[in-house]
Amino acid sequence: xxxxxxIGDIHGCLKTFRSLVEDVIQLERDDTLYxxxxxxxxxxxxxxxxxxxxxxxxxxxxxxxxxxxxxxMLLDSLRSTQAESLWLLNGGAATLESFGVDTPxxxxxxxxxxxxxxxxxxxxxxxxxxxAGLDFGKKxxxxxxxxxxxxxxxxxxxxxxLIGGRTLVVGxxxxxxxxxxxxxxxxxxxxxxxxxxxxxxxxxxxxxLNLDTRKIVRRLNCEEFC
Length: 226
Known about the structure:
Elements: E1 4-7, H1 14-25, E2 32-35, H2 46-58, E3 62-65, H3 69-77, H4 81-99, H5 109-116, E4 121-123, E5 127-130, H6 141-144, H7 147-152, E6 167-170, H8 177-183, E7 188-190, E8 192-193, E9 205-210, E10 215-220
Parallel strand pairs: 1-2, 2-3, 5-6, 6-7
Antiparallel strand pairs: 1-9, 4-5, 8-9, 9-10
Helix pairs in contact: 3-4
């Protein structure tokens, strides 16, 4: 049986993502990789990140992505000029540039269909993966949490008994390495270290969680724009 990993917000940082997967983790064919959303925006190569994820899946690798709030903003921008403006203000322009297009409606349909197919969460025997968080005020957080909470929530709180004794793993909120490490012993593990921001203080790495050992590995941002 292979190893299991989860990776947080990539945000268009293709070189860093590929280095983390190929050089640091050294992902193998029987390993499983869970991706927590926000593949696009802000960083320089959102198109390349999506190509890599789609290509791994098409080649039979065990890669399981979920939806992030930035993918949701892109989908919303297809239906509303107001939503498009909001998306552009939150890094969408970098995604358009990576595709070489002027509007979200010009992004090739295969990418939009891929994003539209992504689930809000994934659940395995010992972990639950969601981009931002769950509502533990609900009796059944996995089925009753709103999309807003799952994509935009900021509280990293978890009651494992309400999700079958599982540990919750989230991205979304940029978190320093010391706080990420501290969360490893809790019911809610954060793994977004703000890779797209570039290396500064305790930020700027793309983080992977080894789900079998509950250990963190990371790759500092290696994009040319930083």
